[in-house]
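User: Can you model how 2-acetamido-2-deoxy-beta-D-glucopyranose sits in this protein?
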Amino acid sequence: MQLKLLTIENQDPTFNSIRITNHSRGFPMRLLGFMLLFLAIVISFSIINMFKIRYLGSQNLVEGAHTLIRSCFQGQNSLQDWIEPPSTYMHTLDDNELLWRASFVPQIKEYPFKRSPKIAFMFLTRGPLPFAPLWEKFFKGNEEFYTIYVHSMPSYRSNFSTSSVFYQKQIRSQVVEWGMMSMCDAERRLLANALLDISNEWFVLLSEACIPLQNFKIIYRYISRSRFSFMGAFDEPGPYGRGRYDARMLPEVTIGQWRKGSQWFEANRKLAVDIIKDVKYYPKFERFCRNLCYVDEHYFPTMLTIQSPYSLANRTLTYVDWSKGGAHPARFGKGDITSEFFRKLHQDHTCVYNNQPTSLCFLFARKFAPDTLDLLLQNSTQFFGY
Ligand SMILES: *[C@@H]1O[C@H](CO)[C@@H](O)[C@H](O)[C@H]1NC(C)=O
Ligand SMILES: *[C@@H]1O[C@H](CO)[C@@H](O)[C@H](O)[C@H]1NC(C)=O
Ligand SMILES: *[C@@H]1O[C@H](CO)[C@@H](O)[C@H](O)[C@H]1NC(C)=O
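Assistant: Here's the modeled complex, given as C-alpha cells:
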C-alpha cells in the first residue's frame, strides 16, 4: 500500500514538489520554531513563578494561577459575566442562532441584582440618520436609561465620531424590501440584538425620518408606567384591512383575528420575546401575505392580538399624517415647522392611557425632510422641551 502510494506520488511532479516543500523543508522548520517558542514561554513562566514564590509566597501563586485560568477560558464565574451585555454588536451569529439565543428567558421574575430598566431605541434605516444631532440632544444626560440599535442596508457604512451616541451601534443587517417579509426579519433582528442586553425592558422601533416630540424624562415615564404596549392593532373592514386577509391562513388566523396597524411599535420585553420566538404564525404570513398585503402592517399586530390581546394599547406612539392619501404618509418640510404645528399635533388628539383619557397620544412623529433639522435643533427647547 505504502509503496504503491509513493509510486503514484512520484509520478506526479506537482504532488511531488508540494510533498517536498511541506515535508522536508517547511514542516520541520516551522515545528522547530513552535517548539522553541513554547519552550521560551514555559521558561519565562517558570521564572515569573519562581519570582512570585520567593517574594509573594505560595498563597498568591495559587490565586494567580486561578486568575490566569479564568482569563484563558473566559468562564462564566461571576454573576456579572452572565448579566453583562455583549461587548460588541458585531457578533458572528447568523439569524437562526441569534433568535435562538435571544429567546432565553429567566424563569424567576425578581432580579438578584440592581437593574435599571432601559428603553431600546431601534432605528430601521436605509442609510444615514439625518436627525442624529436632534436625537443626541434628546438623549443627553440619560445614559443609564437607554440603548441604541441601528439596522441599515448592509452596504452602508456609518461615519459617527467616537463621542456620538450612535458610534458603533450598527447591527449585522440584511437587505430590506418595503412591504416584504424581509422588513419583519429586520425588525426581529433588531429586537433579538436588543434582547441580548438583559437591562432592556422596552423596545421602540423608529425610522430615520422620526423625531422625538417630548423630552426623555416624559417619554421614559410614559412608556415605563404604561400597563399596555403601544402596538397599533385595529380591525379594518374594506380592501386595505380585511381585504388583505387570505383564508389559507386558517386555522392559525381567522378573519376575526386579522389586524392592521402601523409598523412603528413599542413592545415590552415579554412581547419582544414572543415576536422573535414565533414559528407558528411566521410561515403563514410569509406564504400568504405578500406584495399588496404589506406584511409589516399585519404580522405583529395580528399575532399579538391572538396571543396577548390584553397587553396591547392597540395604538401607536408615532404620529404620521395620512390625510393626503396614497401609499405613503405626508412628508413635513421646512414650511410645516412652526410652534402652531406641534401645538396642534398635541391638542387635536385624544386617546386612552392606562384606561384614562389623555391628549398626550404621540411621543414620536414622522416623516420629516432632512432639511428641517436646523429649524428643529434651534427650537427644540421651545417645541419639545429638550
Ligand atoms: C467621516 O467623518 C469625518 C469627520 O467627521 C470626515 O472627515 C470624513 O470625510 C468622513 N468620511 C466619509 C466617508 O464620509
Ligand atoms: C386591544 O384590543 C383587544 C382586542 O383586539 C382587546 O381585547 C384589548 O382590551 C384592547 N386593549 C385596550 C387597552 O383596550
Ligand atoms: C426658531 O429659532 C430661530 C432662531 O432662534 C428663530 O429665529 C425662529 O423664529 C424660531 N422658529 C420658530 C418657528 O419658533
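A couple of observations from the model: The CA atoms of residues 120 and 203 lie 5 Å apart. The chain is about 40% helix and 10% strand.
User: Helpful, thanks.
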